[in-house]
Amino acid sequence: MADPNTSEPALNPNPEERAREYELIHNRLFVVRILLTVIILSAYLFSGASVYLADGLRTRFGAIWPLVNAFYTLITVFGFAAVMFPLSLYGEHVIEHRYGMSNQDLEGWFVDYLKSLAIELGVATVFFGVIYAFLRYAPNLWWIWATAFYVLFVVVLAAVAPVVIMPLFHKFEPIENPALADAVKSFVEKAGLRVVGVFQWGLEEKTNAGNAALTGLGNTRRIILGDTIIKDYSQDEIIAVLAHEIGHYKHRDMARLIAAGSLLAAGGFYLARLFLQRLVAMFGFAGPDDIGSFPIFVFCLLVFSLVTMPVSNAYSRRREYAADAYAVASLGSSGALVSALEKLAAQNLADREPPAWIEFLLHSHPSISRRVRRAREMDPSPR
Ligand SMILES: [Zn+2]
After folding, report:
1. Is the residue at 96 inside a domain?
2. Do 63 and 76 belong to one domain?
3. Mind listing the pLDDT tens digit for each residue in 103-136?
4. CB 184 within 8 A of CB 198
């Protein structure tokens, strides 16, 4: 029964059903977010507000078009974030608290939100500033230049993320526990990775979720292990998580995903080119490089990324299975990986067996039950 003293609905006492609910809420939020984005973009375009803002800025700044584009992007992205704010608050703070995942108070969450927004504003202004410069100077081949720039942009972001962006949100420290630090070091050396560092990722002050990742490129490449994993998992399980991340490293998955993302970006830019060419006259834009066409541009990228999402997710899931396979092979058995995956599922409220179509459409990682089954099948040790 619900506690009459709170307005919060009581959580489902069955952990598996609770995980299913949690997943359902996130999936619904995903759909709502997309629908809202489409509605906002349409309203922005069809009301004439986008053209009005672009014209107004041109009157203000005259021939200094990079300033026009920069101010347009800043105002538009900020306005979009403002309209979406209630949904961000609900999805990232309210729900996380209701399900016991967040350790952050509202103020802490809001500070992080503002930091993310500042980064988004900067990234969007630079990115679209350059793209619209290509539209201006190469009206036919801009989409090829845009793709090349996208690759450069993503590579630079990936390289600086672990040293510039991620420390804004979390602490990164050497692994505290000396026995674990030794075990990690010798496992990494045995795997033949001498340059990469392994860091403790300070998640716990903000979330109860477990996570680990391979981040960075070149000199900044490192493996990060959440303190939420280091604290609660056995040494064998931690090494299994590490082995999975080393699998990503060995398979060059960062480069593969960037290459795959670039192919998709090229497709999205090409689609935008087709649309912009046809719609310029219809909406009264000054030309294809008129920043007032921004809603059409973003809509094309959104449609293309949604349509291709099953493909990119399928590819990502394949890379995850491959990293699991590396972990099982390098550990010589599946036991530690399987128990780490089981713990991760419980800790992160993951639906162990989501409907296949949901996984096909939305998940970049295979479900835990499928990963466990595959890991057991790959186990080389006699059963
Ligand atoms: Zn992975």
Report:
1. yes
2. yes
3. 999 999 999 999 999 999 999 999 999 999 999 9
4. yes
Length of the chain, in residues? 383
Structural domain of 148: 15-171+250-285+293-378
Q: Tell how far the Cα of 245 is from the centroid of ligand 1, in angstroms.
A: 6
pTM, 2 dp: 0.90
* DSSP conformation letters of 22-37: HHHHHHHHHHHHHHHH
Find the CATH number of the domain harbouring 227.
3.30.2010.10
Beta bridge partners of 213: 224
Distance (angstroms) between ligand 1 centre and the Cα of 317 equals: 9
CB 380 within 8 A of CB 332: yes
Per-residue model confidence as pLDDT tens digits over 57-82: 999 998 899 999 999 999 999 999 99
Domain count, the chain: 2
pLDDT digits (tens, 9 = 90+) for 230-267: 998 999 999 999 999 999 999 999 999 999 999 999 99
Q: How far is the C-alpha of 317 from the C-alpha of 359, rounded, in Å?
A: 10
Same domain assignment for residues 35 and 108:
yes
- Ligand 1 centroid distance, CA of 192 (Å): 19
How close is the Cα of 276 to the center of ligand 1, in Å? 38
